Amino acid sequence: MSWIDAAGAAMAMEVCDTPRMVTIKIDECIFKRPAKEGQLIKIYGEVSDVGNTSLTLYLEARAHNVYSGQQSVILSTKIKFVRIDENNDPIPISERVKSRYN
Question: What CATH number does residue 18 fall under?
Answer without folding.
Answer: 3.10.129.10
